Amino acid sequence: MRISISIFKELIPAAFTALCLALPGSVHAERLKDLASVQGVRQNQLIGYGLVVGLDGSGDQTTQTPFTVQSVISMLQNMGVNLPAGVSLQLKNVAAVVVTTSLPPFAQPGQMLDVTVSSMGNAKSLRGGTLLMTPLKGADGQIYGIAQGNVVVGGVGAAANGSKAQINHLSVGRISGGATVERAVPTALGQGDFVYLELNDTDFSTASRVVETINQRFGAETAAAQDGRVIRVRAPQGSDERVSFLGALQSMNVTPAQVAAKVILNARTGSVVMNQAVTLDSCAISHGNLQVVINTEPVISQPAPLSGGQTVVAQTSQIEIKKEPGQVLFLKGGASLADVVKALNAIGATPQDLLAILQAMKAAGSLRAELEVI
């Protein structure tokens, strides 16, 4: 008994509806700036600890967050306010927060940055609060920015008739232009006569193509690959000429090499993502009440007599998946992992079934692709 896949289109469970396939096709040229970055041109992470005030009773519960009280007392003392000994502060409108942002390359003092403000206590919401002046430090402990401003929270909280509703996360907010750069980070565009390009992904073929494209455009021996990721490029000495050169360099179109086959499986949702068509070798797998059999057989196509053609030998495959007696799914043609996944979806396989089957195929050497489970 043979059952077409089309019969099971309406039986595909919701857990598998996020199946995404990137089938091979013509590889298009991409800008070099999308494939590589200039060595040394990078962001730097900044972090700071501060206080958000002016909350509508939604701040930290000071009995459970003593560091909030300590921060407020320290701030008041720095402002010349001394509290009597033994005073217990009951702060409901203050929240201790962590402020984070990224310092972009070539940032100069006075430049404004967006910051993210996150509660680190048990504050219910940061809506309507104001962040007090907070120093932002880098990994070296130096201050590179100062943050302050009104916190904007995108979520909405509401309560009616004893029930509560919350949309989005109320304990995290942003301040647009809330930080001012106080110190610049020196960024050197290369060393001496050279700049270095770093590919986003290590690939010897792509590195070779980038070198070839650059040398065709700017002359022989302009670029040389140091390994599968780093490319050394000879650049002009002057800063203005070097910037113009890098601008022209990053705008060049390069055709990257086809990446290695990779399959990513989300074990919780059953989502499967393939970066290209992944083929399978012959194998037979039994998993619970599921049986997967993949047979690959040669098919010989002979030309007509006296036609002058050549005999062609091709590989065709048949995928047989059984779940119950009398229920068999056949897929003819190339042994494609996409066909196997679709057939398993059609008979209602769970994400755990799919994970076990793919791992068994990988262990048996039938799945010729990198398998990553997230």
UniProtKB/TrEMBL annotation:
Entries under NCBIfam families matching the protein: PRK05303.1
Molecular-function GO term, any one: structural molecule activity
Protein name: Flagellar P-ring protein
Chain's role: Assembles around the rod to form the L-ring and probably protects the motor/basal body from shearing forces during rotation.
Assembly, per entry: The basal body constitutes a major portion of the flagellar organelle and consists of four rings (L,P,S, and M) mounted on a central rod.
Gene: flgI
Keyword annotations of the record: Bacterial flagellum, Cell projection, Cilium, Flagellum, Signal
PANTHER family in the record: FLAGELLAR P-RING PERIPLASMIC PROTEIN FLGI, FLAGELLAR P-RING PROTEIN
Signal peptide feature range: 1-29
Matching HAMAP family: FlgI
Cited InterPro entries: Flag_FlgI (IPR001782)
GO terms of biological process kind: bacterial-type flagellum-dependent cell motility
Family as reported in the entry's similarity comment: Belongs to the FlgI family.
GO-annotated cellular components: bacterial-type flagellum basal body, distal rod, P ring; outer membrane-bounded periplasmic space
Main location: other
